[in-house]
Amino acid sequence: MAMWDSYAFGNYRLFCRELRDILDYAGADKVLFGTDNPIFNTVMPTKEYIQLIKDLPANSPEGIEFTKEEVDGILGGNAAKVEVLKYSQIIAKEGYVIGSGGNVSVLIEGEEALAITPSSIDYFNLTENDICIVGFDSKPVEGEHRPSIETGFHIAVYKNRLDVNAIIHTHQTFASVFTVLNRPIPALFDEQVLHLGNIIDVIPYGVSGSPDLVQNVVSKLDNDCNCYLLQNHGALCLGLDLAQALRNVKLLEKTAKVYYYALNLEKELTTIPKPYEDVFFGLLKNEQQKEIERKKDIKTK
C-alpha cells in the first residue's frame, strides 16, 4: 500500500471503497502498508499518508467502515512480520548465518515496537506467524514463541539511533575474523564510508542476551556508523530499512575480506585520505538526519 498515496489523496472515496473490498476479500493480515515488495522495493510512507490511514475509522465515506484493529494491522505488525521473515531467510540462504544464528528486526512505523525473529528456530522453518512483535518495554505483544535472546540490544539501538529502522545481526565469516582479533576495520573504500561509516568498530564482548552486551552496544552507537563487530561473536548491521541493512551486511563482508587478504600480504596498507573520508561520511550523516527529522515530523503531527 505504500505506493497508493497519490491514489488515496486523488480520489479518497474510491480508494476507501477498493481498500474495503481488498480487506474483505483477502483479510487484514494480507494488506501490507510498509512496502509493495518487501524484499526489494521498500517505500517509506509520508507522514500525511500515515495520518490518512490512521484516520480511516473516523473519516471513512458514508457506507464504508474500517475498524481500529484493521488499521493497526495495516500500519504495523503484518507488514513488518513479512519483511523480517523474508530477510531472515535471505541471510540464511546466502550463508551469513547458520540455523537460527543471528537475528533480524524491523521497527514498526509510528510505534514503540519492533518485529523480530524468534529464538532457536531455523530460519527455513519459520512462517510469518512465528515472527514476534515486542514493545520497547521488552514485553511481547504478538507471537507464540520466545523472541530472540538479543532483543534487548535491538531495542537499545532503536532507542538510541533514531535514524535506524532495521537491524540484521549475522555470524558472517570474514567480519567474524576481525571480531576474534578485536581489530576495527578502517576506512578503506569510498562506498564503505558512504554506507557503513568511517570505521567498523569493535563492540566489547558480552554474553548473548546479557545487560553487559546491551550496554556495550549502546556505548558505540554515538559514532553514527552502520556496522559494528561484536567481539568474539559476529556482526551488527543497521539501516534505514531492511534492504539497506542487507546491503550493509554484504558490503561489510566484502570490506572485511579485502582487509583480511591485504593484511596477509604484509605490505603497506592505504586508507582513504581524511578530507575525502569526511565528505563521504558527511553524506551518510545527512541521510541519517533526514530520517530523524521525518520521524520527528510524524511524532509532532
What is the second-level CATH architecture of the largest domain?
A: 3-Layer(aba) Sandwich
Largest sheet: 8 strands, mixed
Q: CATH superfamily of the largest domain, please? A: Class II aldolase/adducin N-terminal domain
Helix-and-strand structural type: alpha+beta
**Uncertain regions: pLDDT < 50 for 5+ in a row?**
34-44
> Termini distance?
21 Å
Shape: globular
Proportion of residues in β-strands: 5-15%
Q: What pattern of helices and strands is seen along the backbone? A: HHHHHHEEEEHEHHEHEEHH
Count of domains: 2
Give an overview in words.
By secondary structure, the chain is α+β, with helices and mostly antiparallel strands. It has two domains: 2-75, no CATH class; 95-264, Class II aldolase/adducin N-terminal domain (L-fuculose-1-phosphate Aldolase, 3-Layer(aba) Sandwich). It has helices at 5-10, 12-26, 47-54, 56-59, 68-75, 77-93, 151-160, 173-180, 190-196, 211-220, 242-264, 274-300, and strands at 103-107, 113-116, 132-135, 140-142, 166-170, 201-203, 227-230, 234-239. An eight-stranded mixed β-sheet has the order 4-3-2-1-5-8-7-6, with helices on both faces. Strand 1 and strand 2 form a beta hairpin. Helix 3 (47-54) packs parallel to helix 12, helix 9 (190-196) packs across helix 11 (242-264) and helix 9 runs parallel beside helix 12 (274-300). The chain is globular. The two termini are 21 Å apart. The relative contact order is 0.11. Residues 34-44 have low confidence and may be disordered.
